[in-house]
Structures are given as C-alpha cells and as structure tokens.
Write a structure and sequence with these properties.
single chain, 182 residues, Alpha-Beta Plaits, 2 domains, 3-stranded antiparallel β-sheet, 6 helices
C-alpha cells in the first residue's frame, strides 16, 4: 500500500493539471504549434486528440473521487448513537467533576453550491475531507460525528481549562484547516 500512494498522488496531480483551466488555456497554442511543426495532419490529430485527453483524465479524476467517497465516513467519526451516548456521559462527568465540556456544531458552507456545480460525488468527497480535517484538529479524547452531509457535531471532553476562549480557539483551528484546498 505505501508504494501505491505516490502513484495515486501523481495521477491526482496529473488529472488536476490536465483538466484544469491552465491546460485548457494552452490548447490553442498547442494546436498552433502542431500546425507549424507538422502541418494539417498534426493539427487534426491534436485538435481531435486534446478533447479525448481531457475526457480521459477527467474520468480518472472522477473515478478516484468516487472510490474514495462512496460509503466512506470521516476518519475517527463515531455513529450518531455512540455520539449521543458519549454526550450523555460527558454531561454526567461535568456534573461530577465541575469541569467544563462543550459540544460544537460545525457546518460546511457552500455545500449546496458544490452539489449543484459538481454533483453528489464531489460534494460527498469534500464533506469526507472536511470531516477528516475536523478530526485532525481535535484532541484524542474528543469525538466527532457527521449528522448530515455538511453538518458535524464535536464533543469536547471535560477539562479544567475548557472555557469560551478554548472553544473559540478550537473553532479557529477548524476554520483555518478547512480553508486549504480540497
């Protein structure tokens, strides 16, 4: 499996480069260069081959997103039932210890736009990545669940230093990690 990861990253990078706006901007220049270097036959091959390359790389990109997002849950996410059981235990623990605990609700902005522009598969992929990013910034003892496609709940375990400022800092970490490209 470790040997496969760099290849998958290479394919993802090539798909992004070959199907992105920069590649499309160079198609006229590539066609012109083909005409200059090889004449009409080269122009025809490039003009007819370029769309095939875009379709091929686009389908590879779609396939990699589909296999990653289909039926997947964010890493470390618990089911809703387990989350609410843990939340109940968290409430009991705060009453016994007097330490503060928190539950933070997070929603992914623009989910509907992603869904409209790119389809369900891409929206699921972004939601999965968002959940993984949330899990990457919470403490080991904290827990997260996905309640809807674009909504997550985070349970922060009791701590003597957990206050409003700590929750604001956690929100800032979640917001900063979600700003990077998906």
């Amino acid at each position: 499996m470790p040997k496969r990861a760099p290849v998958e990253r290479l394919v993802e990078t090539l798909c992004a480069v070959m199907t992105g706006p920069p590649a499309l901007a160079f198609v006229p220049a590539i066609c012109l260069a083909a005409f200059w270097l090889g004449g009409e036959m080269a122009l025809l091959l490039v003009a007819l081959g370029a769309p095939c390359v875009f379709v091929a790389f686009g389908s590879l990109k779609e396939h990699s997103i589909t296999t990653t997002a289909k039926g997947a849950k964010p890493s470390g996410a618990v089911t809703n039932d387990v989350f609410f059981q843990e939340l109940q235990a968290l409430h009991e623990a705060t009453r016994k210890t007097g330490h503060s605990a928190a539950c933070i609700a997070v929603a992914l902005d623009g989910y509907e736009d992603i869904l409209d522009l790119h389809g369900q598969t891409a929206a699921d992929f972004v939601s999965l990545q968002f959940g993984d990013r949330i899990h990457s910034v919470i403490r080991n003892q904290d827990f997260v669940t996905q309640v809807q496609q674009n909504k997550f709940l985070i349970g922060l375990q009791p701590s003597p230093h957990l206050d409003l400022e700590a929750c604001i800092q956690m929100s800032g970490r979640i917001q900063s990690t979600s700003k990077s490209r998906y």
